Amino acid sequence: MDIRIAATEAEIKACYPAIHELRPHLAEDDFVAQVQRQMQRHGYVLVYMAVQDRVVAAAGYRVAELLAWGKTFYLDDLVTLGSARQHGYGGKLLDWLIEKARELGCQQFHLDSGVQRHDAHRLYLNRKLQITSHHFAKVLS
C-alpha cells in the first residue's frame, strides 16, 4: 500500500469521502475545485492511501516559511475513514508526512487538532509531537 499524491481530478475526488469525515462542511460538488485552488494558490498537497482502489486515509499539507518557525511543514488535514480505523493507516501516513517534512528541509512540523479529537491526540503524542500552543479563532462574517 503506497502513499500517493492526488494530482488528477479523479484522484482528488476519490479522497472526498475520507476528507468529508474530517471536514463535513465541505460539499462534494465544490471539493475538487477548492483543493485545486489551494494547490495553485497556497502550495497545498493532498496525499492518500488506498486499499483495493478505495481511499482509506488522506492528508493535506503545505510548506511555508514563517518568522516564528522558519521553514515549516504544516499539516492541514489528516483523516482515516471511520470504517478503516484500527489498521494503522493514520500512523503510517503520519510517519510518511514527518519524513517528507525532513526531506523538504523543514525545520518544524505543525498541525492544529480539535480539542475533542482524543484518538488523534493519542496518535500525535505517540509520535512525540508536543502540545506547544493554544489556537485562537474568530469567525468573520
What does this structure look like?
With 141 residues, the chain is an alpha+beta fold. The chain has a single domain (3-126), classed as Gcn5-related N-acetyltransferase (GNAT) (Aminopeptidase), CATH 3.40.630.30. The chain is built from five helices and five strands, in the order βαααβββαβα. It has helices at residues 9-14, 16-22, 28-42, 89-103, 118-126; strands spanning 3-5, 45-51, 54-66, 70-80, 108-111. The chain has a five-stranded mixed sheet, sandwiched between helices. A hairpin with a 2-residue loop joins β2 and β3 (54-66). The radius of gyration is 15 Å and the shape is globular. 21% of the residues are buried. The mean pLDDT is 91.
Give me the secondary-structure topology.
Elements: E1 3-5, H1 9-14, H2 16-22, H3 28-42, E2 45-51, E3 54-66, E4 70-80, H4 89-103, E5 108-111, H5 118-126
Keywords:
alpha+beta, 37% helix, 141 residues, 5 helices, Aminopeptidase, 5-stranded mixed β-sheet
Please, how many helices?
Answer: 5
Total domain modules: 1
Q: Provide the structure class.
A: alpha+beta
CATH H-level homologous superfamily name = Gcn5-related N-acetyltransferase (GNAT)
Mean pLDDT: 91
Describe the structure concisely.
With 141 residues, the chain is α+β, with helices and mostly antiparallel strands.
